[in-house]
Write a structure and sequence with these properties.
Layout lengths: L2 H18 L36 H10 L6 E6 L7 H11 L2 E6 L16 H18 L3 E4 L11 H7 L2 H15 L3 E4 L10 H17 L7 H4 L10 E4 L10 E4 L3 E2 L4 E2 H10 L2 H4 L9 E9 L13 E2 L24 H5 L5 H19 L10 H16 L5 H21 L2 E6 L8 E2 L4 E10 L5 E10 L4 E5 L3 E2 L3 E9 L9 H4 L5 E2 L9 E2 L14 E9 L2 E14 L5 E5 L1 E2 L3 E6 L61 E10 L4 E10 L1
Parallel strand pairs: 1-2, 1-4, 2-3, 4-5, 11-21, 12-23
Antiparallel strand pairs: 5-9, 6-9, 7-8, 9-10, 11-13, 13-17, 14-15, 14-20, 16-17, 18-19, 20-21, 21-22, 24-25, 25-26
Helix pairs in contact: 1-4, 2-14, 3-9, 4-9, 5-7, 6-7, 12-13, 13-14
């Protein structure tokens, strides 16, 4: 790839993405080498202005505690951003406490844009950002994309399959299922002609294929042998797009009021859906909230024994009176029921620990006091100890251990929320925006606020880059009125001249050479399927809560002016010290052959016999005499030199000083 290609992508994609991308919050904690754990519970968490009121304070603590008592999880599959059943997702996450994930086959690059001039890849970045904002309202735990690109309205699934490589899309979907390992998969679309859009139809068709392939170790074996993933058998697969007069198996009613979001689940979800303004122009949809789904496959336990769910395929619908209100009806999604649900035998010690943990979580939920959420912290810390012991005792049960490691991170998050904990890391005031360059020295300020519970301390904080390399650390925290504060000096590593230049450009991890390509090329597989790259700089803080250590990770952020409305918080990005953009990127040039100067006749130009007037005739002034007023025919086409004055304007920013500079280069081409 040429330097020009790198600069073009960094300018047209990377910098646009930086302007749109919001801060990424609580990151995955220690994965202990377990494949896939780094891309589960990895939804970009809100920081600063993006925090929603129901996710703060006592309400936020309650939402997190709600998720501790269940192992329910689902993956919702759509074709484009804004296709999702928003109320269903919101009710599943904020009502049932299920771990929820959304998979969109593409980023909507070829949709309409109601808010600006961006099209194609630029619009895809906007729609990705909008879906993240909407997902905060839904309470999503994960958001994934395949490498397929939206190429425009597709009139049929056959056209979609001709444009996409369906096997490549299927491989991406299988990887997401094996990464996320949900109990239930819910297809948004029916998988038939009724879906209309070819992408919708393809999404509905490919979803059950992906579920089946994810359980087969012979399908896409590279994901198992090279990436370290394991096959995964989904317990139930449902599809949407059910018409009013058709039978169904599950009916999700999201119209009920939620006391912790202050309105109905559907109304709250609609606010999030309305944030996808490139498609909605900011309109909030009203009504709806009743979703019906057909069971397509109740394939049994993850080991294929069928012991967990003997419903079989959904060829015959349940009578309306027996339709269920949850995808998990009849499944034991309690903590102590997890091993049996997964079809894995565990030791008596593990079973006893999980039973004690379930009882403790139930007590915390029943006794939660919204006036004093910090009172739950000691019990939650005890629960964390039980959970860690259960993980250690379940070494021979990989699926149980995987789910318990996810639960461990949820318990840590609940402890932080109940403690009223807020960790922020940022550049000090006066820094040049949210950008640093390789080799630059900087100071990172770290603030730990504890507004509710006592018994919280800090032992150390580490600044790490995107690859996880520690670039700075400190243990010198000073007590403040509401917590602790520290500042650490660091110097950004110099760029290796032999390193991948595209990675150095801080562009998204996905790119393509032109709009004719319908699949992205991936530059960094560590972020594959996530909305965007992980933060360039993060701070991992070792917190000691009631004598137990948890690691809380936040991005390094900085305020960016947004005049006249103050500033917004953005994650700090590491960019090249110098970036160049051709401005404007489009030029219009004449396509007709200009008239040749006198005495410089070219083939195809008028042929003159004289360049002066003739003698007067009949008293009238003479005119130049020509043999023809039409261009002379040439024997063969010839290239014609066209003089064009070209002015190239380059705008570049020196990020170390924050100066904008403009250079104009003129000349004839």
């Amino acid at each position: 790839m040429t330097d020009w290609d790198i600069a073009r992508r960094a300018a047209a994609v990377g910098l646009a993405f930086l302007a749109l991308a919001g801060p990424v919050g609580l990151a995955a904690q220690s994965t202990d080498g377990a494949p896939g754990l780094d891309r589960v519970l990895a939804f970009p968490a809100a920081v600063a202005e993006e925090r929603l009121d129901p996710d703060r304070g006592a309400m936020g603590a309650w939402q997190r505690i709600l998720k501790l008592g269940t192992t329910a999880s689902l993956l919702h599959v759509t074709a484009h951003p804004d296709d999702e059943n928003s109320g269903m997702l919101t009710f599943a996450s904020r009502g049932w406490g299920a771990r929820t994930a959304l998979l969109s086959l593409n980023r909507g690059e070829a949709g309409a844009n109601a808010i600006g001039p961006e099209l194609f890849d630029g619009l895809g970045l906007i729609r990705t950002r909008e879906l993240v904002l909407a997902g905060r309202y839904y309470g999503l735990d994960d958001l994934y994309f395949t490498t397929a690109v939206d190429y425009g309205y597709s009139k049929s699934v056959e056209e979609a399959y001709r444009s996409w490589d369906p096997e490549a899309v299927l491989e991406d979907m299988v990887r997401v299922v094996r990464l996320n390992r949900p109990l239930v998969v819910v297809a948004r679309f029916h998988g038939s002609r009724r879906d209309g859009h070819g992408h919708h139809h393809a999404s509905g068709l490919l979803t059950p294929e992906a579920v089946e392939a994810a359980a087969d170790p012979a399908r896409f074996p590279g994901q198992i042998g090279q990436e370290g993933l394991r096959p995964w058998r989904v317990l139930r697969t449902y599809r949407g797009g059910i018409r009013v007069d058709e039978p169904f198996h599950v009916q999700v009613d999201a119209r009920g009021e939620s006391p912790w979001v202050g309105t109905s689940f559907q109304a709250w979800a609609s606010r999030g859906l309305g944030l996808q303004r490139s498609q909605t122009a900011g309109r909030v949809r009203v009504g709806g909230g009743l979703y019906r789904y057909e069971l397509r496959d109740g394939g049994g336990s993850t080991d294929g024994s069928g012991s967990a769910d003997a419903r079989g395929r959904g060829d015959e619908a349940l009578p309306a009176s027996q339709a269920e209100e949850s995808f998990f009806a009849g499944l034991d999604t309690s903590l102590n029921g997890l091993p049996a649900l997964l079809g894995e035998p565990v030791s008596p010690e593990t079973s006893a620990l999980l039973a004690r943990l379930q009882g403790l979580v139930d007590e915390v939920a029943a006794g939660f006091d919204f006036r004093a959420p910090g009172q739950s912290v000691p019990d939650l810390v005890r629960g964390l100890g039980l959970l860690r012991s259960a993980i250690a005792s379940s070494m021979g049960a990989p699926e149980t251990q995987f789910q318990l490691r996810l639960k461990e991170r949820q318990v840590e998050d609940a402890i932080a929320a109940a403690s009223g904990l807020l960790v922020e890391a940022g550049l000090p005031g006066g820094a040049s925006g949210a950008v640093v360059v390789p080799g630059q020295s900087l100071a990172v300020g770290i603030a730990v606020e504890v507004t509710v519970a006592a018994g919280v301390g800090v032992s150390e904080a580490r600044v790490v880059d995107r690859a996880g390399v520690v670039v700075g650390r400190t243990s010198d925290f000073a007590a403040t009125g509401s917590g602790f504060a520290a500042e650490t000096e660091l110097r950004m590593p110099e760029v290796d001249a032999d390193a991948d230049a595209e990675a150095r450009a801080a562009a998204p991890y996905f790119a393509r050479d032109g709009i004719a390509q319908n699949h992205y090329q991936v530059a960094d597989s560590a972020d594959l399927h996530l909305p965007w790259r992980r933060p360039a700089l993060s701070v991992a803080v070792d917190l000691v809560v009631e004598g137990t250590t948890i690691v809380y990770t936040v991005p390094v952020t900085a305020p960016v002016p947004r005049l006249p409305y103050g500033s917004v918080t953005r994650p700090v990005e590491v960019l090249p010290a110098l970036s160049v953009v051709v401005d404007p990127p489009v030029r219009v040039v004449p396509v007709e052959v200009p008239a040749a100067p006198p005495g410089d006749a070219q083939p195809g130009s008028p042929t003159a016999t004289s360049d002066g007037p003739t003698a007067p005739a009949n008293g009238q002034p003479g005119r130049p005499t020509t043999t023809s007023d039409r261009p002379a025919a040439s024997a063969s086409p010839q290239a014609v030199a066209i003089p064009i004055q070209v002015r190239v304007c380059m705008i570049y920013k020196t990020y170390a000083s924050g100066d904008d500079r403009r250079v104009e280069l003129g000349g004839r081409r």
